[in-house]
Amino acid sequence: MxxxxxxxLLGSLVAVNLAACGDDKEDPKVEPQPEPGETVEVxxxxxxxxxxxxxxxxxxxxxxxxxxxTLTIEPGTVIKGDGGxxxxxxxxxxxxxxxxxxxxxxxxxxxxxxxxxxxxxxxxVLLGKAxxxxxxxxxxxxxxxxxxxxxxxxxxxxxxxxxxxxxxKLKYVRIEFAGFKLTEKNELNGLTAGGCGxxxxxDYVQVHKGADDGVEMFGGxxxxxxxxxxxxxxDGLDWDFGYSGKVQFLIVQQNPEVGNFAFESDNxxxxxxxxxxxxxxxxxxxxxxxxxxxxxxxxKTQAGxxxxxxxxxxxxxxxxxxxxxxxxxxxxxATVSRTTSTxxxxxxxxxxxxDNANVTSGTTLGAEFQxxxxxxxxxxxxxxxxxxFLMEASTQNQLVDPQLNAALDLARPDFSPRAGxxxxxxxxxxxxxxxxxxxxxxxxIGAIGAExxxxxxxxxxxx
Length: 463
Prior knowledge:
- By secondary structure, the protein is mostly beta strands.
- The chain has one domain.
- 6% of the residues lie in helices and 32% in strands.
- It is built from three helices and 31 strands.
């Protein structure tokens, strides 16, 4: 009979015990060996409560849809995606992927380390029944199909009237080398959430080196906390279709080759001003970092924010620094009108801007920077002066060096402020609401204060 590893282990244990007889020395302690895990190929949709165990590695072989039940993923589990694969949780299902700082759950490419890259697989998709501002031909609220899949794909609809819908939990999760492009402007992101409600928990999530956006919120009311988007090929956080969630402690770090905007933000391109619910997230304690390339040298127009198509948004305690072409573009008449609205306001307050398009001092953040295909500067806002608006005295914004430790380092970044940084001056920071979600004690500017919440569970592999 061919010996197995269990037979060999048993024989070695017996030999050790026999050798110890007659010897006064204490027997050596032999730890039991765990059963080796399996590589589980996931080829079929999930239709009931299912658990993926940490001892195994799961490989997504295609687009896998959780059609019903709850998919539970144990701390420390590794899930790998083949080309053309993704994991989508439909409106009738949930995910319960809760890792720990010591044992994060990792979604990554199935390619070998050293050959991985953005777009190797499709990413994670959560679909819910919370409101979106998409209307049918009669002007009535309707569902929409999530981007990234053929329109004929079952299970891709999202949206509804349940603002508290629960898409599940993602906590201490890394998503690497994802993103999938079906056609132009029909793409999956690292993490895509369509119509997820406020009962959804998305906390301590890193999206690294995605082929499209890091996180995109298609409407809904889901909240985001402790989010790190590192080196996306496009935007960091993208919201549209009436997203009205809360965001606190978010970092975006762009790369110099292809990174676009840290925030790309819309209400609805079809009826920018009147589509309801209006995109109006409340955002606190954010650090947005560009590549610090010379103007015109980045692969795309690279700026902190592109606010367009009528988005609103209440943003405070942000750092926006080192973007090649500029800080903020408020695009279009509908979006400009939000800057004076009391119903659905758009503002950035108690924030620090620095070295965007090389502007490091003065009373304005610079002029228009968006360009057309011929390279000419485009006036897309009727002459509205973003740079002056954002530096009005009432905003309490500053044009100073935030003094971050190593925010531009792509391999071992450190987004924390140095001692004495103006970001740590509580007198210049706003006070987050005490509402059960926001940390009201975060009286600092940027995503990190005295404690670096990114330590211990994030990673920044090049390939």
